[in-house]
Amino acid sequence: MKVCFYLILTIVIFSCQSKKDKVLSLEDVSKGSQKYSENNKEVIKVNDKKDVYSNLQEYSKKIIDTFLFLKENIVLLDSSQFTDRFGAKKAEKWYVINKKDSFTYNHWQFKDSNTCYSTFFNYLDCFGQNCKSYIVGHPKKFYKNRSVLMLIHQNNFWILESKLKIDKEKLLSLFSTHFQHEKWKFIVHQDIYSKSKWFQQNDKNTRIEIIN
């Protein structure tokens, strides 16, 4: 009888110990819920960076090559932005950091120009985390310590940002090689510590400044 009692007691203790081993702390759960562990991130960086550049659109490749950005430093942006709410057909977002600069590239392609213009106006109406409103042609600062270039061409919308001065003319020249004409609905340019300037450019390559 005593033998049976000790046998049952041993089984119960072992069962309880097994259950204890399966209990997870809140810290364990939070660690497991992360998208990747730090070790996995490093593996992904090494394996995927070789393919990032080759899979980019020609617009991106031209910018990277022209401004001598290191291909292995290109990082894709997968975070959702305000502009992503408007159903773009294609979107490409990436950034690169070097010793002197950090450059961010955002491009959305919409089904038609009306959707693109509507997205642009909505973006201006609720800009940034504080949802500030900007009026077309009004020379305000979008950022205090960054340069920005926004471009609207038919159904394409670009936002380019940099810690340094953005070479607007060089970038426009790069983009224009892909289009049959150089008509830009909007060109919005702001150098670091400066106010924004607004332009339109017609088929004859005539640029008109918009002032409001």
Task: Tell me what the structure shows.
35% of the residues lie in helices and 23% in strands. The N terminus is likely disordered. The protein has six helices and eight strands, in the order ααααβββαββαβββ. Strand 2 and strand 3 form a beta hairpin. The radius of gyration is 26 Å and the shape is globular. It has 212 residues and is α+β, with helices and mostly antiparallel strands. The N and C termini lie far apart (97 Å).
Key terms:
212 residues, alpha+beta, 8 strands
Which SSEs are present, and which pair or pack?
Elements: H1 2-21, H2 26-33, H3 38-52, H4 58-66, E1 75-76, E2 90-97, E3 102-109, H5 113-125, E4 147-153, E5 156-162, H6 168-176, E6 184-190, E7 197-201, E8 207-210
Antiparallel strand pairs: 1-2, 2-3, 3-5, 4-5, 4-6, 6-7, 7-8
Produce a short descriptive summary:
With 212 residues, the protein is α+β, with helices and mostly antiparallel strands.
DSSP summary: helix tally = 6
Assembly level: single chain
Helix content: 25-40%
What proportion strand? 15-25%
Mean pLDDT: 78
Give the tally of β-strands.
8
Shape: globular
Query: Order of strands in the sheet with the most strands?
Result: 1-2-3-5-4-6-7-8
Largest sheet: 8 strands, antiparallel
Whole-number tally of structural domains: 1
The gyration radius over C-alpha positions equals 26 Å
